[in-house]
Structures are given as C-alpha cells and as structure tokens.
Amino acid sequence: MAIGHIAPRRLADTIVEQLETMILEGTLQPGERLPPERVLAEQFGVSRPSLREAVQKLAAKGLLTSRQGGGNFITENLGSSFSDPLISLLEDRPEAQRDLLEFRRTLEADCAYYAALRATEVDREHLQAAYDELQACYEKDSERDLEAEGAADARFHLAIAEASHNVILLHTIRTLFNMLKSSVVTNIGGMYAREAETREGLKQQHRLLFNAIMQGRAEDARELAGTHIQYVQQVLSERSESHRRLERAIRRDSLTRT
C-alpha cells in the first residue's frame, strides 16, 4: 500500500480555525472589531505575516470585513438568513409575531435548561450583569425608557443562550433577535407600558428564571422559561384583541355620525 506524504499544516490555517471557533461559540460577535494586528499576534503567539494571511482567508470566506483605517470587523449581518423585504413583511404581520413567540418558547426553554446545567463562572458573571442591567431599568419608574427596557430584556435572554454552550441554539436565538430586533424591542416595550400588574409579572418571571439557572435547577429553568414566553404570548394577544375591539368601536361610531 502506497503511503502519501503528510503535508505540514500552515500556521495561518490554525489561526483561521481558532478564530472561526471564537466566532461560532460567540466569543467574537457580529460587528465586533478584532484587536489590532500586533496585539492579536502577541495573544496567539504567532508572527504578524501569518496572522495577516489568516485574516485574508477569513475575509475571503465572508466572515471578516475591513474598514479603511478602522481595522477588521466580524461581518455585521453574520447569520442573517432573510432579506430586508422579508424582514419588513414579518414585522408587519401579527400572525408572524405569534409564530415567532411559539418558536422562541421552544428554543428558550432548551437554552435555559442547558444554561442551568453548563454555565461556567464566567457565564454566571455575564448573566448577572445582564440581569442587573434589566433590574436597573425596572427601578427607573419616574424616568422609564421603554426601548431601553426592551433591549435589556433581549440581552438577558441572549445571555442565557450564550450560557447554554450550544452553538446552534445561540446563533438561532441571536439571528432571530437581530432579524426582528426592532419588533422584539417594540413588543416587549409595549408590554412594559401596560398596567403595573403586567410589569410586575415580567419582573417576577425574570427573577425566578435567573435564580433557577444560577442555582443549576435545569428542569425548573426549562419550565420557567416556557411559562415566561407563554405569558408574553398571552399579554400580546390580549393587547391585539383590545386594539381590534377599539377599531371596531371607532368604525361603528363613525357610521352613526354620518
């Protein structure tokens, strides 16, 4: 049997593999700027020409983009699988929002389950920071910023996905949030704008979910995450129905006045 020579692996290919792993696991995120070439070469313990070759290969794959005088960035729309017209179409359809929440219920329950099982100390620190940011928004009763609350809510759920250490779940959740970012924030912000009972319900659910994950109670975390998304579905459905009733009343009133 003939045995062929084993070609030595280029150092640049090893660097590419390492950077791809960091992108896949969420260490490097879409839109994030890579450290300067000199710093990154020192961190990897490689030569700058080898690093430069690796960066060029990643750029050729569409994973990196270069900005004149601004360095190298992870591609901003990485993971986006829908075109802009379709995004607008989904954002404008209540039934699409319902479908999105049903999908989130399944995904986020699994994320919470695995986060409770797998979260490292670093993950817990990130989750704590996201939770604290959300709590800080809750405390601003006199100067409430609904958009900020909605964005903090989304970041909290994304931190749970990161702690799951399941790259498919992470990137699916991240893609959903990026794809419908304004809609997610608007919906959640709209919920916070409702009566105090709704807001208190959200606060309590987040607290229970956060504690279950931090304490490693995986089954409880799965159930609590599912219950939370179900609650969001219910509140938004009630709001939509209330809006439809108001529209019907206005139409009837306008007819009686003519």
Features:
single chain, two-stranded antiparallel sheet, mainly alpha, elongated, 258 residues, 2 strands, Four Helix Bundle (Hemerythrin (Met), subunit A)
SSE inventory with pairings:
Blueprint: H1 11-24, H2 37-44, H3 48-60, E1 64-67, E2 71-74, H4 84-91, H5 94-118, H6 121-138, H7 146-163, H8 167-179, H9 181-192, H10 196-214, H11 218-256
Antiparallel strand pairs: 1-2
Task: Please tell me about this protein's structure.
This protein is mainly alpha-helical and 258 residues long. The protein folds into 2 domains: 11-74, Arc Repressor Mutant, subunit A, CATH 1.10.10; 80-234, GntR ligand-binding domain-like (Four Helix Bundle (Hemerythrin (Met), subunit A)), CATH 1.20.120.530. The chain is 72% helix and 3% strand. It contains 11 helices and 2 strands, in the order αααββαααααααα. It has helices at residues 11-24, 37-44, 48-60, 84-91, 94-118, 121-138, 146-163, 167-179, 181-192, 196-214, 218-256, and strands spanning 64-67, 71-74. A two-stranded antiparallel ribbon has the order 1-2. Strand 1 (64-67) and strand 2 form a beta hairpin. Helix 5 (94-118) packs antiparallel against helix 8 (167-179), helix 7 packs antiparallel against helix 8 (167-179) and helix 10 (196-214) runs antiparallel to helix 11 (218-256). It starts with 10 loop residues before the first helix and ends with a helix. The relative contact order is 0.10. The model has no long low-confidence stretch (mean pLDDT 80). Residues 9-77 form the HTH gntR-type domain. Transcriptional repressor for the pyruvate dehydrogenase complex genes aceEF and lpd. GO terms for molecular function: DNA binding; DNA-binding transcription factor activity. Keywords: DNA-binding, Pyruvate, Repressor, Transcription, Transcription regulation. This is Pyruvate dehydrogenase complex repressor.
